[in-house]
Amino acid sequence: HNVYCLSVDVKVSAEFLRATRRLANCLPNVFVSSRLENVVYAGMSRLMADLHCFQDLLRHPVTWRYVINSPGQQFPLRTNLEIVKILKLLNGTNDILGVTGESRNPERYRTKWNYVANETSGDVRLVPTSVTHEPPPGDLDIVKCSAYGAFTRGFVEFVLENKLAADLLNWSKVVYSPDEIYWGTLNYNVASPAPGGFKGVPAKRKWLTSYSIWPWEHLPCQKFVHQVKK
After folding, report:
1. What is the mean pLDDT of the chain?
2. Contacting residues for 177 by C-beta, under 8 A, at least 6 apart
3. Is 180 a catalytic residue?
4. Which of 178, 192, 195, 220 stands the most exposed, by the fewest C-beta atoms within 10 Å?
5. Each residue's pLDDT tens digit, 108-148
6. Does residue 226 or residue 15 have the better pLDDT?
7. Are 177 and 210 in contact (CB under 8 A)?
8. What is the predicted pLDDT for the residue at 228?
9. CA pair distance 196, 219, nearest whole angstrom
């Protein structure tokens, strides 16, 4: 059975949040996350929003096997039956993008980033500092990933309960876009005992969960939203 956790940015209007809760209450397998975040683009709050839903899902009576996280404006390209078949073929492994080398965007984590609010609008954004960030914990090698993937139940339990995962989460608080570091680093490192992980060369593993077209790829696309076609 599918269960759906909705994470809503606290910056939405009270009317929108009430409407979302009412809609969720109409469906027995849909609920709004018990903890909502004030989401800052590329900030820690994006990752925390997922983790709050993960915690809620683990408490849910349905014993699900995989979590697939996705943005609110992304739509499935496969039927539910096809998705189930694909997850069965994954056979207890995670489907997480892995990128190594300079493509990891090391400028995102080698120095610390600060949150700065616009004095007029109050909008918060991340700005880089010249302060060198300490190496990641546990001899982990950073692996860039997508913010989205398919995670086994064991992996979800690991990221919420394991000390190494907690240490990496704490380390990620001052990096840019930690949601594009956290999953991949835990999944692909030999030093990480994450269930469902892959310890080979990340580039040799196909990633299936999400498909995006970016403007700079110059591929046919009718409409881009937030500079990405999903």
Report:
1. 94
2. 42, 46, 108, 147
3. yes
4. 220
5. 999 999 999 999 999 999 999 999 999 999 999 999 999 99
6. 15
7. no
8. 62
9. 33
Two tokens at 118? 């616009």
Residue type, 112: K
| Residue found under tokens 């809503």 | 8
SS (H, E, C) the chain: CCCEEECCCCCCCHHHHHHHHHHHHCCCCEEECCCCCCCCCCCHHHHHHHHHHHHHHHHCCCCCCEEECCCCCCCCCCCHHHHHHHHHHHCCCCECCCECHHHHCHHHCCEEEEEEECCCCCCEEEEEEEEECCCCHHHCCCCECCCCCEEEHHHHHHHHHCHHHHHHHHHHHHCCCHHHCHHHHHHHCCCCCCCCCCCCCHHHCCCCCCCCECHHHCCCCCCCECCEEC
**pTM: predicted TM-score of the whole model, two decimal places:** 0.94
* Tokens standing for residue 72: 């609110």
